[in-house]
Amino acid sequence: MPPAEMKFFILTLWISSLISIHCQIITLNGAWRGTINICDKKPSEDCNNDMNFNATVPGGIYTDLYKNNIIEDNLLGRNDINNRWVGNQSVIYVKNFKVSDNFLKARKIVLVFDGIDTFANIYLNNHMLGETSNMFLRYIFDVTDFIKKKQNQLKVIFRSAVKVAEDLYNEQKNYYVVPPVCVPKEYNGQCHINHIRKMQASFSWDWGPAFPSIGIWRDVKLISVNDILINDITTDIRKENNVWNILITIFLEATQSKNEEFTQISCHIASILHITQNKFISNISEVVLDASKKYININISLIVPADAVENWWPNGYGKQHLYYLTTTVTTANDVLFKRIRIGFRMVQLIETSLKKGLSFFFRINDIPIFIKGSNFIPASIFPELGAKEDTIRHLLLSAKETHMNMLRVWGGGVYESKLFYDLADEYGIMIWQDFMFACAMYPMSDSFLKSVKEEISQNVIRLKNHPSIVVWAGNNENEAALYGNWYGTGSAQVYREDYVKLYVNLLKREMEKLDLTRPFVVSSPGNGAFEKTYNYTGVNPYLNLYGDVHYYNYIRNGWDITQYPQTRFCSEYGFQSWPSIYTIATAIENIKDLHIDSDFVKHRQHQPLGNQYMLQLILYNFVVPQSNDSIRDFASYIYLSQINQAVSMRIQTEKYRQTKSEVNSIGEGMTMGALYWQLNDVWQAPSWSSIDKEGRWKMLHYYVKDFFAPIIVTSHLSISNELSIYIVSDRLYTLTNCTESNKAIKVTSFWLDAFLSEVGCGTLESAKRSCIAILSLTDKSGSLIAPINYIYSDALKNADIPVANITMKTKENHLPGKLSNYADFKIVLSTDKIALFVWLETNIRGRFSENGFHMFVKKKEIIFHAYEATTVELLQSNIKLMDISNIYNAYT
Ligand SMILES: *[C@@H]1O[C@H](CO)[C@@H](O)[C@H](O)[C@H]1NC(C)=O
Ligand SMILES: *[C@@H]1O[C@H](CO)[C@@H](O)[C@H](O)[C@H]1NC(C)=O
Ligand SMILES: *[C@@H]1O[C@H](CO)[C@@H](O)[C@H](O)[C@H]1NC(C)=O
Ligand SMILES: *[C@@H]1O[C@H](CO)[C@@H](O)[C@H](O)[C@H]1NC(C)=O
Ligand SMILES: *[C@@H]1O[C@H](CO)[C@@H](O)[C@H](O)[C@H]1NC(C)=O
Ligand SMILES: *[C@@H]1O[C@H](CO)[C@@H](O)[C@H](O)[C@H]1NC(C)=O
Ligand SMILES: *[C@@H]1O[C@H](CO)[C@@H](O)[C@H](O)[C@H]1NC(C)=O
Ligand SMILES: *[C@@H]1O[C@H](CO)[C@@H](O)[C@H](O)[C@H]1NC(C)=O
């Protein structure tokens, strides 16, 4: 398309010569000064009240005070409690800065805060600019009249979120209580987070500590404006009759010049989609803006023939093609341009009638996709650290490498950073995006609803260009809490009315204006489209015949596949385990803490009865070693907790995958999604995560790679001892005559006991104690096309497991690293007997190609992918090896 091409080159010349003159940005990130009253730190002693400290923006009070040695390491020992006084204080952040004459020449200057946590009054040169009260909002202040030549002072005075929440609760309870009144005592948390618009998990959760943070957690900048300021550019992309229709909307603020009553601003707008280096599709528009209106939206449309671009695909289905779209707005005094990145993909949530109930599955580019993934909690309990590139990249890559195609950004955290969604776009990780409401009732004051309305509008506009986001969801478990009376709301009508007010009348309706290119579900778990028929409350949201389900059971044996629901979509399910002892070691103050009954162990477990549940679940399948060496016992216990989690999750996930193409006699099944709880951690504690706080993969994460593989061979043992074998394929082609494309098929069924009696393992009893069945699926040439799988015919605590002597040799470091810039190492393992759950661990950063595996052969080679520089010798001496026989044998 030659004309577009030419236009583009003209534009670039223009931009490069003009942009620096007409639009300037001054960052106010970096070094600030802070002040906090420290009398509450040690109330009994004299204190000189206010203490100054060096602050960082983006930042937060807990990280700042630690860097200034005013408080101890927040994540060490019980410091979540020792440092709690911090969250009760008022804090002042100050920045002194200069601006140039040239900068001040602009008609208007705005101050932009991308995120303030949470309650602050903002002053420039002692003039109050405004107040903030919602952590999820961007705030823009017009500072034209208050900014000076030379020295300026920006001051942000924060009030304690704990105190504000308490005040709001006390005010509200004059009318009626909006529960929960507080979190369970095991959380060591703060109360009333539901009254404020702040990361709900920052007042504690069952997997995390309370750090009621305060700070400027995202960027701050000054922007000089002449005619217009572009706040956002969004795209709505739809496919109609073989063309992609892109509706581009430019959200502007116009500047009215001081002397004139109203101004008309002529704008020339050009949008260019860059297809290849020399192929573009563009459109232009001329509009006259009425500057007496502050906020103005302009639309421009681009028609893109479907065959001119490549589709964006989820991980496992094709490439993640992404395209840049540049929009330039030119006025008499401005040339502004913004580049965004988009992808072309269609998303549909299919809820059509089945024999009973409705289906619930995602169709991307017309392909039904079995959703495989996990739930993402904030990457740090300190919001300012939640967008650290190495952390986010590691977590999302760990999702991609284990065949995940979706993460659910859970409603108790934050709307994540641009980096997070950019990487999700690049890795093909679809995002189920909750709005930030979780496990609570919420107040309905006008100010609260107004704030929420602005929050959803801003965040949807900020995020909707990302092709990775495929569904919006109103809240986490709030319908379930109401239905199940979790917080004593009983049959009171007011809570049901409030629920509908917030999630249906406000959120759902707003979403109909903000984004109709994606589906919206009111709650997770929920009954999807069925909810409308009963006005969204009053029916069990966990119905297997509709929508999504969350399933947890800590009473039954996690290895018993018959307990798991046959559901349309399981969006949460999980089991706890302890993180690596190396990770725990970064949190303990005393070696005595490494004891199964230590105060540290109790302190870190927030789930009521969590430690008892975990022990009982392990005891279904293993004996827990007890000796005179408590550290070794603790290490064995951690190991067993990880095995139990890994195998339970494997079996549960396989159940969901087995029922992909079948329904049972009561119409349950056609399962099309498995998102386990949870991917990551915020501290060193027992939790449901598969990756711990230090980024280490637990055994579960190694297992995820197998049980989410595109093709699996898997078994189902019924209560009556009937063993069925399934082959499940997410591939869109047929590989052998027993893998059908995109289907789960039951290939055979037989009585397990009869089978064991026949295979020559002796009597049935001895066969059960001494045989593990191996499932392998090969193609005609004999190559494996699915990960090896196992059937444990009896609890392993009853098995005769020989004592294995496993030796390990780290071989070479000539291998170029495949997953990082560092070397890969070959590790050769030898054993004299079969060995179960062979587990390698090291404090050198990196991961193994596989781990937690069984050895039925004498030799096995695996790879260690290093994430830091190391040597053969260091690695050899730093790897610890465990297997099941070994943890018991140590004591005999
Ligand atoms: C605070 O910053 C100043 C100026 O950069 C520096 O001299 C001082 O050492 C810092 N104080 C602390 C406690 O880091
Ligand atoms: C912080 O304030 C809350 C609410 O007023 C109060 O319950 C708590 O005891 C205070 N905590 C500390 C450590 O001062
Ligand atoms: C822009 O498009 C949206 C969606 O079609 C429409 O609601 C809105 O009125 C349009 N705005 C203008 C200024 O044309
Ligand atoms: C440019 O915009 C006009 C007006 O909306 C539209 O009719 C036309 O199809 C657009 N052209 C392209 C190439 O998108
Ligand atoms: C749902 O609400 C509508 C409108 O308020 C009402 O007409 C209808 O009877 C309600 N349905 C149920 C099942 O409560
Ligand atoms: C545990 O007991 C064994 C045998 O009685 C003894 O050799 C060993 O030193 C003891 N270990 C510890 C840590 O006390
Ligand atoms: C499929 O398997 C059956 C039985 O094992 C075999 O007889 C048949 O030839 C196979 N078909 C194909 C197309 O490979
Ligand atoms: C384990 O195997 C290694 C290497 O084969 C051998 O040197 C060692 O003596 C064995 N250890 C035991 C306890 O059998």
UniProtKB/TrEMBL annotation:
GO molecular function, one term: beta-mannosidase activity
Key words, A-Z: Disulfide bond, Glycoprotein, Glycosidase, Hydrolase, Lysosome, Signal
Alphabetical list of InterPro entries matching this protein: Beta-gal/glucu_dom_sf, Beta-mannosidase-like_N2, Beta-mannosidase_GH2, Beta-mannosidase_Ig, Galactose-bd-like_sf, GH, Glyco_hydro_2_cat, Ig-like_fold
UniProt superkingdom: Eukaryota
Enzyme class: hydrolase
SUPFAM superfamilies recorded: (Trans)glycosidases, beta-Galactosidase/glucuronidase domain, Galactose-binding domain-like
Location in the cell: Lysosome
All residue ranges annotated as the Beta-mannosidase Ig-fold domain in the record: 822-886
GO BP: carbohydrate metabolic process; glycoprotein catabolic process
Gene Ontology cellular-component terms listed: lysosome
Principal subcellular localization: other
Residues spanning the signal sequence: 1-23
Domain (Beta-mannosidase-like galactose-binding) ranges: 52-218
Enzyme Commission number: 3.2.1.25
Pfam families assigned: Glyco_hydro_2_C, Glyco_hydro_2_N2, Ig_mannosidase
Catalysed conversion reaction: Hydrolysis of terminal, non-reducing beta-D-mannose residues in beta-D-mannosides
Domain Glycoside hydrolase family 2 catalytic span(s) in chain numbering: 418-577
TM ranges: none
Subunit composition and interactions: Monomer.
Protein role: Exoglycosidase that cleaves the single beta-linked mannose residue from the non-reducing end of all N-linked glycoprotein oligosaccharides.
Family, as annotated: Belongs to the glycosyl hydrolase 2 family.
Name of this chain's protein: Beta-mannosidase
Species of provenance: Cyphomyrmex costatus
